Amino acid sequence: MSLNVQVIPVVSPLRKKRLDFEDTPDSEASKPKRPRLGPVSGLTPCLQPLAQSPCAVDQDSRVLQIGPYILLEPREEGHSYRAVHRHTETEYSCKVYPARSYPETMAPYGHLSPHPNVAQVAEVIQGDQNVYVFFQPGRGDMHSHVRRRKRLPEREAAGLFRQMAEAVAHCHNHGVILRDLKLRKFLFVDSERTRLVLENLEDACLLSGPDDSLSDKHGCPAYVGPEILSSKHSYSGKAADVWSLGVVLYTMLVGRYPFQDTEPAMLFSKIRRGVFSIPDGLSPKARCLVRCLLRKTPSERLTAREILLHPWLASGGAASEDTCPNPSGEQGLEQVVPDTWSQEEEEEEDLHS
After folding, report:
1. Number of folded domains in the chain?
2. Quick check: is 128 catalytic?
3. Most buried of 47, 105, 224, 350 (most Cβ within 10 A)?
């Protein structure tokens, strides 16, 4: 059935288009995930394999066309597609959102100026039920890269982590809290795997003022901060993002999450205690930065902007014997950990606090 498509109001630098097309993907299947925290069963949270899209089999035999774009294989249960522009043959990544949730989902983009480490929206097309948002494609994500490499040398990790911190600092400076930060959120944009972008702001929220207090609990269990698990009231959204960056950095350098357990209750207990081990093989500056991010008390963590001033990033991850003070309660925790990381895929879960 042919639909009359209206041009939706989008913020610069988005490219708008008025087109007629078949609004094919189901709006319920394309509803983005909004994870909340609580117990789940089975494999280690964040490491469970992604479920196969229920609509993938049906759609393999047909081509979906949205305006000038051809949508190829679906991902994330029909919420994301690989897309190709019919005329230029340029490849894109297409995110599909229910039309009713589009304004809230895309609001953070209206408050961000362009940044080299935050993915930019190329075009938005609206149908009666769904909105199709097109991004430049990535060349693999950091989760897959670290899983394949097991762990990253400090020089490489420093160059990549600086770009992650730049993206988060840019968002925080503009009142955007990311809430669901993790390795998979960062995509490579070059074949050499040296340049990263934050894939999207799908789970982000926009602050209405200088107060960054949040009460809703979003996130992937392995990356969630102890204050979110322990507090029944509000918590600092910026400090929670910094904790997640700490988990990201630890995993890049060590090759495993700082807090792991197959039982969710035990995993959350470990996170609440905030006790973790760091291999002796890491440089003192690297160990220092990890500790400055994974501090149990949110107010004691570095801010995203302060991360960029840390000596480890300033030295480009170069080895050094310089020491850095430990936060209280973390002395004597350095231990060699196995050079392994689960081969399971990372996944968000719907959880209850």
Report:
1. 2
2. no
3. 224
